[in-house]
Amino acid sequence: MTSLFDSFDLSGLPLANRIVMAPLTRNRSPKAIPQPITATYYAQRASAGLLITEATAISHQGQGYADVPGLYTPEALAGWRSVTQAVHAKGGKIVVQLWHVGRISHTTLQPGGQAPVAPSAIQAKAQTYLINADGSSGFAPTSLPRALDTSELPGIVEDYRLAARAAIDAGFDGVEIHAANGYLIDQFLRSGSNHRTDVYGGSIENRTRLLFEVVAAITEEIGGARTGIRLSPVTPANDAFDPEPQPLFEHVANGLASYGLSFVHVIEGATGGSRDYQQGDTPFDYTAFKQSYRQAGGQGAWMVNNGYDKDMAEQAIASGAADLVAFGKLFIANPDLVERFRADTPLNEADTSSFYGGDERGYTDYGTLAGSQ
Fold it and tell me: Does the record's keyword annotation contain Heme (predicted)?
């Protein structure tokens, strides 16, 4: 029987186990530059089969939260290179999550104080994290976005391509395209946020156009074996909504099958919330979603996420429902989560007050079974 602790071949990348650290925004990269403590943080967690970094902006326009990292300046890339070297020195594998937040931003975070961009000029019922001039921080409503002109979209696709190339040059083992949780690509997918009347709006085929253009550009640049994608079919995160997610995401699954992706990372239910959450009249059928991908020829690893504990993860792996299981918040307080799972020992409790922003406290100072940090 296949175990959570068995090794896995991820499109030629050998993973020591099937436990993945999910992306976790921590807001500790001033000026979008990963710091030395960032390298420490990821290296501490390198026993995971795969680390997926916090969401990382592909451009200044793609920024949406204070002190999150980027991939678009030499300084940021140097910071990330220190991270990948530290993780590889511990025998770990790491991919970076490519991010454009779209409308989930604020004018103070945008180039020249401009409005954020989106498929349509619809303000999200959501908040973002800001650091004020006096050093205080907190959450504030997102700004009203402007609708992207059709002529601007090739430039955004190019930003994704350049970021993917930069990631590989910085030593990452691959990338994960963030197409989930109500950010730019997801905003185009869903009819609740996409009211366009051009070739990027209206029908499912049109609303998925940007997604497939981004996937094509990245896989042509770095190869499908180094490219994964994250999807969240029914999450309401960041005001994401579509009344008919099943046909939409089965179309996505069918289309993704031809790109030779490394993995498909699926958030089941509401991100960070109920696994049974649904949009539309019927529950989302995740089995049918996966079958659509497989029947269309998709060979990438199937990664599941949201609310899994060790027992649920073991069942998902043993049954073949998933190849990999991603854990988020458990990794914040348990850098040695793999070892704790293996030994069936108690888990540390996370300090929620230190999740966003700050220094080493609540970031790199959690204890391990070995007694080191």
Answer: no
Helix (H, G, I), strand (E, B) or coil at 302: strand
Catalytic residue among 183, 259, 363, 366: 183
Element (H, E) at 177: strand 174-178
- Tokens 């990330």 found at: 80
CB atoms near residue 286 (< 10 Å): 19
Rounded mean pLDDT, 162-184: 98
3-class SS at 255?
Answer: helix
Query: In the annotation, is 183 catalytic?
Result: yes
- What are 103's two structure tokens? 């409308």
Domain 8-371 has CATH 3.20.20.70: yes
H helices of the chain, in order, are 36-44, 74-89, 153-169, 184-189, 204-207, 209-222, 245-256, 286-295, 310-319, 329-333, 337-343
Q: In this structure, what DSSP letter does residue 115 have?
A: P
User: Using an 8 Å Cβ cutoff, are 12 and 301 in contact?
Assistant: no
Q: What is the pTM of this model?
A: 0.98
Mean pLDDT of 143-167: 98
pLDDT digits (tens, 9 = 90+) for 333-347: 999 999 999 999 999
* Amino acid, res. 289: F
pLDDT in tens, 352-364: 999 999 999 999 9
d(CA 26, CA 53): 10
DSSP assignments along 32-90, one per residue = G---HHHHHHHHHTTTSSEEEEEEEESSSTT--STT--BSSSHHHHHHHHHHHHHHHHT
Q: Is the pLDDT score of 101 beyond 80?
A: yes
Map tokens 């490219």 to a residue. Answer: 227
3-class state of residue 231 by DSSP: strand
| pLDDT for the residue numbered 166 | 98
Q: What's the pLDDT tens digit per position in 176-217?
A: 999 999 999 999 999 999 999 999 999 999 999 999 999 999
Integer Cα distance of 315 and 203 in angstroms: 37
Kindly list the domain boundaries of the chain, sorted by start residue: 8-371
Per this entry, what is the length of the chain? 373
